[in-house]
């Protein structure tokens, strides 16, 4: 854990979050600044700054997060209408919080 990281603070229960899933390896909670009707964040418990910092021992948790995303999408009612997973890597790609996280985004209606 990183004492200056908001996601680490959320995981430790020091900052509030609206959790929808939690286990020993990762958490899922609603984004406080959503960019879509449905916007949740999937965050590993281990503090990993970005995809660039992944190690071989992280393979299982990242794989589980990806697999869990379809269950979360179903729970949130967007599995069939469509959703996307986004990982920003570095500030040049829009990463603002330097703790690896996956955005699960969807819920737009067709026009």
Automatic annotation (TrEMBL):
InterPro entries registered for this protein in UniProt: Histidine_triad_CS, Histidine_triad_HIT, HIT-like, HIT-like_sf
A Pfam family recorded for this sequence: DcpS_C
Name this polypeptide is given: Hit-like protein
Top-level taxon of origin: Archaea
Transmembrane segments annotated in the record for this chain: none
Motif (Histidine triad motif): 99-103
A GO molecular-function descriptor: catalytic activity
Location of the active site: 101
Listed Gene3D superfamilies: HIT-like
Domain HIT stretches: 6-111
